[in-house]
Each structure stands twice: as structure tokens, then as C-alpha cells.
Design goal:
Length: 272
Amino acid sequence: MSVAKREIKRITTHVLHAMKEKGEKISMLTAYDFSMARILDEAGIDILLVGDSASNVMAGHETTLPITLEQMIYHAQSVIRAVERAFVVVDLPFGSYQGNSTKALNSAIAIMKESGAHAVKLEGGAEIEESVRRILSAGVPVMGHLGLTPQSIYKFGTYSVRAKEEAEAQKLLEDAKLLEEIGCFAIVLEKIPATLGRKVSESLHIPVIGIGAGNGTDGQVLVVHDMLGITKDFNPRFLRRYLNLYDTIKGAVEHYVSDVKLGNFPNDEEQY
Ligand code: KIV
């Protein structure tokens, strides 16, 4: 008897563009390790982002700034090994592309070559145009990221909603159009008014993925540790928690500790 292999259609930039054209929403989550990436991929996620939020949720830093290119590559390699269907995007970390397009190109190439990822993501608009152009010229797909850009936290001073004022909203729209024009395949919009998120999405042909950018974008992204409730103290309005894994895991571990202390684990069936 022959066993039919599961037919898997990989997500590509073309598939993502077709989804936007058809009005089919795009699902995206972060992933940083093999085990979680495997679950998310099997669950049917369209895009996995190896986000520099690994700096916060995996390494415990206060900001995304400390994570290095080598550390991002390590996370990306782990994710890529797990994935059969999703499109995998990797963040270029702080300091690996700003102000130096040759460095940007080399960073992007290192990520693509050493991890096998499918695309990179950079934060910013006109100010990083040259870096984006150089990376695109090497045939590497680029995802933009506008609005709240956490790598610039010390410039903003806070993680509050961006582009509430007309001038900043106008600049964001122009940056989004520029990124589309020079060849980015998609853009993330973070923490901006919903009306602006919808306007940008309707103004562009490429997919726009929102995080705290309302329901009018072409897709949504969340940090997986936040939506599963593994993190506890981060509670922005845009976050929907689908589980409370912090308490579930804590309860299970308390149970295990108690079983070990009481000599209830292992039992007769759990030993040789
Ligand atoms: O690093 C990250 O998790 C991100 C998302 C917030 C989009 O960039």
C-alpha cells in the first residue's frame, strides 16, 4: 500500500500578492525556535517572522536593540528547519543596515545564505531607501516596516501610537508608496490609527500587514508569545490573548515539582 505524501503549496511573494488581489487576509506570527515554528506552520500560518522581538521575549532585553546579526541567524536557522509551507521573513537587527548600504547588503546576504530564509524586513522609509535598493538588487525580497519602529525607541521616547498628527501620517503614506515603488513585496504597519492603516492598504498594490493598525489592513501580525499569553506584563489594546499559557505552564510545573517531592513521579509504568 502506498502512502500519499501530503501535498504542500509553499507560500511565496506571488501567493501573497494574489491573496491581496483576491481580498484574502494574510496571517503572520513571530517565531524564533524549531518547536514553535513547526506548530505554527502546521496550523496554517502564512508568514513567519523571525522578529528582532526575540531580543525581548527570548533574551529578556528591554528593547530590540541588543540582538546581533549572528543571533538572528541562529533563530532563523531553527525556524527554517521546521517550516514546510510558510514564507519566512527575518528582521535585520539594529546596526546591521542603517546608514551604510554595503553593510545592509552584506547583512541581508548573510541571513539568506546562512539560514535559508525567504526575505528580510527593515524598519524605516526614505532614510533607508539606499539600503533597501541595494538588498533588492541582489534579488532578496524586502518587507518594509513603518509606524512604530521599535529600533528607534530612543528617538520616539515612548511606545505610544504613531502618526496621529497629519504631517506624520502624510510622511508615512509617502514612505509606504516609496517602498512599494522601489520594489518591497509587503509592508508592516505598527501601532497607527485604524483609518490610516486602511488608507495605506487601499493605496498600495502590495500586501500591508498590521499590528495595532486596525482591521483595514491586508493581514495581521502578532508576537506569538503575547498572543499565547506566555508573556504577562505587555497589554496593549491591540493584543488579543488566545491562551493564558503563563499560568497553564506554571500550574503544570508546580504539579511536577510536587509529584517529584512527594515521590509520585515516576510511577510503576514510567520506569524500566
Ligand atoms: O520583531 C517583531 O516582532 C516585529 C513585529 C512587531 C512586527 O517586528
